[in-house]
Amino acid sequence: MNATPITVAHGDGIGPEIMAATLHIIQExxxxxxxxxxxxxxxxxxxxxxxxxxPSAWESLRRTKVFLKAPITTPQGGGFKSxxxxxxxxxxxYANIRPCVSYHPFIDTKHPKMDVVIVxxxxxxxxxxxxxxxxxxxxQCLKLITRPGTERIVRYAFDYARANGRKKVTCFTKDxxxxxxxxxxxxxxxxxxxxxxxIEKEHWIVDIGxxxxxxxxxxxxxxxxxxxxxxxxxxxAAQIAGSVGLxxxxxxxxxxxxxxxxxxxxxxxxxxxxxxxxxxxxxxxQMLVHIGQTEVAxxxxxxxxxxVEEGVHTYDIFQEGVSRQKVGTKEFASAVVARLGQxxxxxxxxxxRKLDDGGFKVPxxxxxxxxxxxxxxxxxxxxxxxxxxxxxxxxxxxxxGLQLEMLSNRGMAVWPKAIAETFCxxxxxxxxxxxxxxxxxxPHEVIPQxxxxxxxxxxxxxxxxxxxxxxxxxxxxxGQGQ
Length: 482
Ligand code: NAD
What we know:
- By secondary structure, the protein is α/β, with parallel strands linked by helices.
- The chain has helices at about 15-30, 40-45, 55-65, 85-90, 145-165, 180-195, 205-215, 225-240, 280-290, 295-310, 330-340, 385-395, 445-455, and strands at about 5-10, 35-40, 65-70, 95-100, 115-120, 130-135, 140, 170-175, 200-205, 220-225, 250, 255-260, 310-315, 325, 370-380, 405-410, 410-415, 425-435, 460-470, 475.
- It contains 13 helices and 20 strands.
């Protein structure tokens, strides 16, 4: 077998210890790796590099396309950029995969039958980080969900399920409220799901879905969701499976991939040979599968399961009466190495199949052609006063077929219909639109002219969004209570 080039970062805190343990096990298991080592994290940040990674490290990552990363410490204080977010976005790692498995009865858990894989979209949603302050009172963060981004992640979830012999894919969204953004995620899930008749599909609104996941995780198999829900629920899932210290994760892109533990650098445990290397080790197992060294992955993973089963535990999972031997990081790794070639007796043995086509393929995105018509604008105006006063000022400004259809405050319609109790802050959304049912559109220049009339009336607009119909369907939501 040829050695596969990979890039390794030993990280901060417990990072170097758990990386040494992980590499020791997988190399003893037969992994053929040509390792390039890079420095990332605290020391790089403290040298004044706000991204925590040097340009030469990017060269290595772009060359090997496979990154095994130990946790790092982000220094306290402002200005330091999250290395994880930078790496994910720079390398286009759109899928975050976290298997959350319980190891009952060997590791304490309330959910003995749990075996869930969380597939989290990794680049979009509120994590685009596009935030603005509009007025004294109002701050805004933009939630972006795109069709190509959603198609990729949903297809990844189904392909992952198929490749790993899993039976069901569940989708979590909040599309009862966010009908366009989360609505798209749900719709794409339904569209793509049709191509996987062999896999059971279901959708849950994220709140009740999350409650169910925390209560009866054994009824879930693969769960796919947008970025924010996935961020939160993958930690919840890992924790209730037994410990965040046991979960590994992969971040997969079209050409590059990163593998890591889900926990941090645990600085208080550093340098004491105490830390549990299992999270990073299980991340490395996913890496071996990714680079096609599936037999090595299976051998190493089964030896690890056997070690856990025999009660050889680090301090964090050690339990009097269940565990047999409390060991340090190095001794744990040696215990796994000593069991290479063995399989667990009670826990389910790991089985990895080589993917015939060399792995997952990012689908070719076919952009649709739709008839897009401009039908108005939402003008956001800073205003301290009653909605009816603002309505009276704005109504005469409507022209070119547009009508002042509604004012809303924090999304709730407050004009022309209103409930006196609705609390208003200092920014109103003012919808100028062609009347419902009218055909056609307005030319773009109508909108700056409208904005100029707003300014001319002594009002300050703080933001504007255009209202489009796509193939006759509104590409904007109605006001709440409208
Ligand atoms: P942490 O995950 O490092 O630690 C949380 C708790 O879990 C601590 O009590 C710790 O001792 C324990 N723990 C974590 N991993 C363990 C292991 N392998 N074995 C035994 N015990 C373990 O989270 P934190 O304390 O909030 O963060 C510490 C640092 O890690 C911060 O600088 C943070 O920015 C960073 N961090 C990095 C990553 C990453 O690089 N991917 C992720 C999360 C946090």
